[in-house]
Amino acid sequence: MKTIRITVCALICLASGMSASAQQMPPTIVVVEDAGMKMLAPTIDVPGTVVSRNDSRLASELSAKLKWIADVGTVVKEGDTVARLDDITFRLLEMEAQSRVDREQARITFLRAEKERLERLGQENLSAKSQLDQTTSNLAIAESDKAIAEAQLGQAKVAMFVTEIRAPFDGIVTEKLRNIGERLKVADEVIHLVNPDSVEVVARAPLNTVNFIKDGDILEVHNDYRKGNGVVRTTVPFGDPQSHMFEVRLNIDPSLWTVGESVRLSMPTAHAREVMTVPRDALVLRREGTFVFRIKEDMTAEQVNVITGLGAGSLIEIIGDVQPDDRVVIRGAERLSTGMTVQIRADEGSSGAGKSSASQ
Questions:
Q1: Which pLDDT does position 350 carry in this prediction?
Q2: Are residues 188 and 62 in the same domain?
């Protein structure tokens, strides 16, 4: 009997110690976000590609040998030379055209002086009128020939100018399409230039999504590595007659995306409606149902059963006893149960994602 009493006492002491230890456990650290009423619409993901608005394959305007070309990766400003053609022939043509202009100018100078002399003699009846008329005609022809020579000189100067292929915009050389020493013909492509700071997303969307977007709408853009927002710049109002797809173009942040990158757009398939939303990370899925943990004023957790509805991006609609501005747990919920004390930790990454989605 004495042994039994000792054992019972030991068990009571042990239980008391465990209870005290449980009460002294530190609060669970969680990250929270506010629930709120948001305008949401059901969405589908549509594939798209990041492209540059300024993406050009620069060609030769002359038939000549390629003398120099910029290396791949060269950063250039608008007007910088990216390739140079052999200009010896065109330099000689310019010199020849300049000589023609000088020759015609000399003829004009002589004929003007001769005309003035004949006009003076004619006033004194010392020269025939026909001789004056012939000189006047020759002067007009010389002036016309000079105009032709000046036009040819202008063409020669233009040819000299375009022996240097210049960047039409700021960009980066992405590809050399010809090598030094190759003979080029007119319109032969020489170099590929891309501006990485002027980017947009091009996507082809079905009619059931195009009907629910307009210019200026904000859509989520994402892939396996990052996500952000894009602003609808335009929807091309003509669809492909076979695929029934319409082209959509969005302005995006050039510091976030790279030209040629594959992305997906979250596009609405119905009109938006106002619903109670929480971040998807707030949902706890168990066999007994779906619920979220709400943090009360006394910093304890409360389990709330919910039913999920439509989702858009990182947000999802819920139906249940959740009010706007209720703080719901988005990190650390797997360790919680009703009544547990918590400590809230700021999580900038999660908050930023929530704000991004809310702006949609």
A1: 44
A2: yes
Between the alpha carbon of residue 98 and those of residues 110, 158, 162, 307, the distances in Å are 19, 13, 18, 86
CB atoms within 10 A of CB 323: 10
Q: What is the DSSP letter of 207?
A: H
Beta-carbon count within 10 A of 244 CB: 11
**Segment 156-189, tens digit of pLDDT:** 999 999 999 999 999 999 999 999 999 999 999 9
Answer for the pair 135, 118: CB distance below 8 angstroms, yes or no. yes
Q: Report yes or no: 292 and 328 within 8 Å, Cβ to Cβ.
A: yes
Rounded CA separation 135/140 (Å): 9
Number of C-beta neighbours around residue 77 at 10 A: 9
Q: What total of structural domains would you count in the chain? A: 4
- Pairing mode, strands 75-76 and 171-176: antiparallel
Asked if residue 7 belongs to a domain, the reply is no
Q: Are the beta carbons of 51 and 158 closer than 8 angstroms?
A: no
Q: CA nearest 266: which of 318, 223, 329?
A: 223
Q: Which domain, by its residues, includes 339?
A: 27-40+273-358
pTM of this prediction? 0.67
Residue type, 22: A
Q: Can you read off the two tokens belonging to residue 161?
A: 């100018």
263-to-46, 203, 249, 252, 259 alpha-carbon distances in Å:
8, 9, 13, 12, 11
